[in-house]
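To: structure desk
From: M.T.
Subject: fold request, one chain
Message: Could you run this one when you get a chance? Sequence is below, nothing fancy, just the single chain.
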Amino acid sequence: MSPDLIIFDCDGVLVDSEPLAMRVLIAAIAAQGITVTPEDAYRDFLGRSLASISASLHDNHGEPLGETALKSMRTDLYALYRQELRANPGLPEILGQLDTPYCVASSSTPERIHLSLELTGLLPWFVPHIYSATMVAHGKPAPDLFLHAAAAMGVAPEHCLVIEDSPAGIAAAQSAGMAVFGYVGGSHAGPSGLRATITALAPDRVFDDMHALPDLVRSLRTKKKAR
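Reply: Done. Structure tokens follow.
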């Protein structure tokens, strides 16, 4: 496979948002009387949409995320983003070094994706090629979102490369028949034990330095051509 499209996840890949989002999510869940440890939250919720998280809470604790929790989460998270959100190291510099078209496909809402990219200076690099799990029937780990993004960009799944930081996202890319690189350079990767979990899923590469991505993409192209 020679990648004709790179599909970036947003949270944890483009922006270092996961610790902020988990902080707000765990507090909202606690306000409903449900205790979830950070370790369990990273394991069960990383890379998933709020609809999927709510369904998981209903299945495991008998109560989904309520409307009050969802509203307060949005307010609290956006305020925290405006104070602390940063792009992951290497961005946006490496985007200008890529010779392959790219887009973003995230479990977040379009509003949250736009805010994240705008606050970190990444929005001009991706507009209008921004895709949200709200656009498909099933979020990650289902392949729907990545297949939707590929179709919108006019690229066959087998010619797509996904950059992901979550088990759910990696599973979604693999189910879609796409190559996938596991990124473990976010500040949440160490505390969540993400590297071992990601490595066990056998993505095409595991990397922790976004500066290396252009060369990794070229090496994938060379490797696939040699087969």
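Reply (cont.): The chain has a mean pLDDT of 91. Let me know if you need anything else for the meeting.
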